[in-house]
Design brief:
There is one protein chain. 25% of the residues lie in helices and 24% in strands. It has 190 residues and is an alpha/beta fold. The N and C termini lie far apart (65 Å).
Length: 190
């Protein structure tokens, strides 16, 4: 009876994990979700269908840690997670702006919502629904990669290949983490 009371009194909330590429966002998301599973909590994980870099059906970190997920086309598909106590969402920047309302609704239903995504695009501009999610979250964790030029904390994911589309899936060959100073030097050199 005591366990049931704890679960029924659980208050929903939103946690956001943000930062540049190669900062460990997905790794931290997976760590938190695996801890919840270990605690026998019902966990559901979602990612945008556009993210097929390492797997079509798993959330996979750059270090190849993985956890099963459900790919969805839009944020509305995440609202279907009725049974979950914990809802994980990776690559949130690729979702539509409705993700903010979806996460609010899930938290209002008493669910723990853990969201990971890029806070800025390759131009240093706030990305997709991430600013709105950070505004409504009870907890925001900004994780940092290390600047590949100078070793300071990275500020942005600098695109090192041609292309001006905002959404371009990539890895080490397409992006590099840079601190603010090194990023500004790169922009001036272009």
């Amino acid at each position: 009876m005591h366990i049931f009371q704890e679960k029924s009194n659980r208050r929903g909330h939103i946690e956001v994990i943000c930062g540049s590429m190669f900062s460990g966002k997905t790794e931290e998301l997976i760590r938190r979700l695996k801890r919840a599973k270990f605690a026998h909590q019902r966990v559901e994980i979602y990612k945008p269908t556009i993210d097929t870099r390492y797997s079509e059906e798993e959330v996979v970190s750059h270090d190849k840690n993985a956890i099963a997920s459900t790919p969805v086309d839009s944020s509305a598909g995440i609202l279907l997670s009725e049974a979950a106590e914990v809802v994980g969402i990776d690559e949130a920047q690729f979702f539509d702006e409705g993700l903010v309302a979806v996460c609010n609704e899930l938290a209002n239903r008493g669910k723990r919502v853990i969201v990971a995504g890029l806070d800025m695009d390759y131009k240093g501009v706030p990305f997709g629904p991430m600013p709105g999610l950070m505004a409504i979250a009870e907890e925001v964790s900004k994780v940092h990669a290390i600047c590949v030029k100078c070793g300071n904390l990275a500020y942005v994911s600098h695109r090192i290949v041609d292309g001006d589309r905002r959404v371009m899936l990539g890895e080490h060959g397409e992006y590099e983490p840079l601190c603010r100073d090194c990023y500004n030097k790169e922009k001036q050199g272009q």
